[in-house]
Write the structure tokens for this entry.
Amino acid sequence: MKSKLSHLRPKGLHIVTMGCQMNVYDSQQMERLLEPMNYRPARDPEKADLILLNTCSIREKAEHKVYSLLGRLARLKRKKPGLIIGVGGCVAQQEGHRILERAPHVDIVFGTFALRRIPRLVWQVIEKKRRVVDIGATELVEPPCIRPSQFQRGRATAFVTIMTGCDNFCTYCVVPYVRGREVSRRPEAILKEIQYLVEAGVREITLLGQNVNAYGMKKGHGCDFPTLLEAVNGIEGLKRIRFTTSHPKDLSDALIAAFGSLNKLAPHIHLPVQSGSDRVLKHMNRNYTRDYYLERVESLRNVRPDIAITSDIIVGFPGEEEIDFKETLSLVETVGFDNLYIFKYSDRPNVAASRFANKVPDDIKSERFSRLLELQAGVTLRKNRSVVGTIQEVLVEGLSKKSDEQVTGRTPCNMIVNFPGTKQLIGELVPVKIEKAFSHSLFGFPVNRREDHYGRKGGTPYAA
Ligand code: SAH
Ligand code: SF4
Ligand code: F3S
């Protein structure tokens, strides 16, 4: 009896997700797709029967990470020969068969378009004992599973991909090569998916696309991004909406106006500028100027004075001179970003900039990186300190990593706040009085409760 039913034993699936939020979303899709084959999420890779790496190829370092992880998995596979290892995502799309050659213990290579074919690929490995590669590029219009599974419940926040691909071809960027052309999902399917998530307890959603401002702009679609936002804003039970990423060149007046009119749209925008020098922006093919970017920032602040603005910057782009970098420093000072993600330029396969002359030496890239980081660290800390003493509405996302008696969540402006509390608070919006500011987070105490979850009587008066 036991042996007859042994094939029904749930099998462990361990997914390692690297890269951007889109990969996080895709990994959840993989989990859902493999559920009918009796695969269940396994936290511990040692307990898994199937390990999938969902990879990122945005910088060389991200790609190296894949091969070093695969090196470690080779040992695991020697211990457990039945283990199936698959490599998916952007590195898989880019490298294809080369991964099988470099890593003989890999069974499956599946690119970004092969996501929904993963059950068939796993089946081929099990039944036909074959190694398989699928990097075929067929358009992915709708994700196959839009209802969260029982294993994906209990979350306060979720990502929803609204469009895939990118048509912009910034000269440094691999995304258009590994994710294909822009395709926008139908608004009805997106709204349905968000409704399901809200029914499962989600209170905040982040709409994802490489350039959400271009959502629905292709012929025959008929619903642009501000219109979609308005419809999402009407979903009952949903408390907050965020989106990422927004390309400055397509940041329309209508989208800026949405920050003034939609009550659920959080006052935060991630608006990657990449450089403060017009000359560099031109070589990057970003299609906007420094002045245009500053004007868009001003318009956003006119509509929503408290809006948090965060950005990405690449230092050491080919041909970047000290004078260009100084322009970046001055733009960063002028805008006063709430947070900044800084990257050293990295050559990528196929992209135009990898063939550009005047590559910046690594030591100069590192030096510029440190200078910019130091400048921004001061600004971020100042911004964090400026909210000490205020009351912020925090959406609780989970237990804090530091202690089981603390929870963590975010303010509308996306600042991380830790405060005493228990996991029963997950999914709740809690007013928190901010008492301390650190470089990457805030700490406070909940207010407006006579006796709250951590047993501290009285709390801090709301209007303190
Ligand atoms: N679609 C988004 C960016 C996605 S990639 C946008 O256009 O804003 C995330 C960030 O990685 C980019 O904003 C850029 O700052 C950085 N990046 C992309 N390619 C890079 C490269 N070749 N070297 C270094 N950083 C890079
Ligand atoms: Fe890459 Fe540019 Fe597309 Fe962003 S907009 S994904 S940086 S090509
Ligand atoms: Fe990386 Fe692919 Fe995202 S390259 S940043 S995982 S789209």
